[in-house]
Design a protein that fits this description.
alpha/beta; 8-stranded parallel β-sheet
Length: 398
């Protein structure tokens, strides 16, 4: 049974509690056959509510105490990319997502976070007024459904994130702001520290990063944000929700530049034991809102919850089917597998990829596309199409 009155996110963070976010719904549901890669829009909340509900439930069972609404890219300007094939309005999708998140959150001690993200309107150089209007329309549903707090996430440009925070702040609800940047800063080279200061001054009480980079890179980025905020004499809480992929070869745009994006990323997936290290490092840096983004599955969140169980004072329900550091293997029939039921084995393991001819890293596609570079993007796209046309029109050898 859920408690009658739940502590809010700021109340929990102010008390020094660890708040565990959920994982990456877009990628997880694409793999399960409910989301289309490319548009990445969340109409599954209205089309296949049972799939979204089940994923929420698995993350809750794994230890998450934040159910983020599946509203990523649910702004009207982004949903228009689906054309006539989309039979649901943005409001219907957002409302369905809120209902599902609340239903599952009430099954435990979890909060509901309404999420907005970057908009096509900003990337196509629309005005501040136009961008804010798009965000406010999505926000109206969150107010109607009375979410517990709000997250502005996946922003490549701190300017747009500031606009989002300003809109969200008008509701009076707690606001978290999360950029999809690495240690180099946003797409205009504004440092993580300066980005964080701007977000805090705009009204965000929780700041951090999500997506685009691996856990340790994201932790390092948030560390820089924390340093910047403290140097400016400001106060904030910190959050991190990274990829579940190793990305040491990424540039400033992160994993979207990798040749493997989005369908060949599985060889880069972090193990559950990698997640233990990530959770501990994030905690040591002073981050107390710790979760995941693309690639994260419930077992990754369970690993975070298990690593931080001493600080939280309890294990997640899903640990009943796991055991600490593989202790369940003690019941295995093979002696060499039983011997792996210990922390020092998994903590020092260097997993093999099983791919003898594959490189350990890739050469990213470094297009450098950012706001205002629409002409460059169109030019490169046209060049690519010309090259493909030559390739496919080439006469075949007899």
């Amino acid at each position: 049974m859920a408690p009658a009155t739940k502590k809010g996110v700021l109340e929990r963070l102010n008390a020094g509690e660890v708040v565990i976010g959920d994982g990456g719904f877009v990628f997880a549901l694409e793999k399960r056959g409910y989301v289309k890669a490319g548009p990445w829009t969340p109409e599954a909340a209205a089309e296949y509510p049972e799939a979204v509900r089940q994923l929420h439930r698995e993350f809750l069972r794994a230890g998450s105490n934040v159910m983020q609404t599946f509203t990523f890219y649910a702004s009207d300007d982004k949903l228009e990319n689906r054309g006539n094939k989309l039979t649901f309005t943005g409001a219907q999708i957002n409302e369905a997502a809120c209902n599902l998140a609340r239903e599952v959150a009430n099954e435990g001690d979890a909060l509901v976070a309404g999420g907005v993200c970057q908009t096509p309107s900003y990337l196509s150089c629309k005005s501040e007024v136009e961008v804010k209007a798009i965000l406010k329309k999505q926000l109206d549903v969150f107010i109607k459904k009375d979410v517990d707090f709000l997250i502005a996430e996946y922003f490549e440009h701190v300017e747009e994130a500031e606009w989002a925070v300003q809109v969200l702040k008008e509701t009076g609800k707690p606001v978290a702001a999360s950029l999809c940047i690495g240690p180099q800063g946003d797409m205009h080279g504004i440092s993580p520290g300066d980005c964080a200061v701007r977000l805090v001054k705009a009204g965000a009480q929780i700041v951090g990063v999500n997506c685009h980079f691996d856990p340790m890179t994201c932790v390092e980025t948030v560390r820089k944000m924390k340093e910047g905020v403290e140097k400016a004499g400001l106060k904030a809480h910190y959050m991190v929700q990274p990829l579940a992929y190793h990305t040491p070869d990424c540039g400033c745009q992160g994993f979207i530049d990798l040749p493997e994006f989005p369908f060949g990323l599985e060889p880069r997936i972090l193990t559950r034991w990698d997640m233990h290290k990530y959770a501990r490092e994030a905690y040591k840096v002073g981050i107390r809102f710790i979760g995941g983004c693309c690639g994260f599955e419930p077992y990754h969140i369970r690993a975070i919850a298990e690593e931080l169980a001493p600080e939280r004072g309890f294990l997640p329900v899903a640990s009943e089917k796991h055991g600490s550091w593989g202790s369940g293997l003690e019941m295995h029939t093979k002696p060499w597998v039983r011997a792996r039921a210990r922390r020092d084995y998994w903590d020092t393991l260097k997993p093999a990829s099983g791919r003898p001819q594959c490189p350990s890293m890739s050469t990213p596609d470094n297009w450098g596309v950012t706001k205002g570079h629409a002409d460059l993007m169109q030019q490169k796209e046209a060049t690519t199409q010309d090259q493909l046309k030559v390739l496919f029109d080439k006469p075949k050898k007899q």
